[in-house]
TrEMBL record:
The keyword Signal applies. Residues 1-30 form the signal peptide. It comes from Flavobacterium faecale. This is DUF4823 domain-containing protein. Keywords: Signal.
Amino acid sequence: MNEESPILASNFRMRVCSLLLLAMLFSSCAGTIKTTNYAKEPNRNFKKACIISTEGSKYIKFRFGVLTPFGIYVPADKAAIEHSTIGNTAEVIKQELENNGITATIAAADTVLTDFDLIIEYNDVWRWDFKKILDHLDLFFISGTGDQLLAKSSFSIYKNKELHNFPTPEKEVPKMIKEFLNPK
């Protein structure tokens, strides 16, 4: 038997494993968006919207995993904590509404709202993975009078949080607004 054959087989297995690992890293998951419409007859002819800016974001602190003989153990997340505002979620929502022909204004939570067709409130949760990334985002679409929840759209990073495409409001908000304005 040829002495090089075990070495060649070992090199081949190593290359295949390396290619599979790279494929997993570059084909990461983008997360999921779920939009639920509550209005019986959705009216999507909005002209003027108000985005209620949050006082802050929530943040999930990073926890180191442990390398064991059986693989990597990643501890469960602790509850998200209050944090100063992260990212530019309100501005991204405003820009996306304006891209869809809806004039938008960003206001503080205590602002008296008048003369709007649509009110949008949001909650964002972030985590760290080489940079701050969006873990969860809820958009609440409320009637201009403030008395009816029209729809709720939720983005959540994929359950396997180690494989993702570094989600941001710039990537996810346009999809969420599109699902709201064009219900199936």
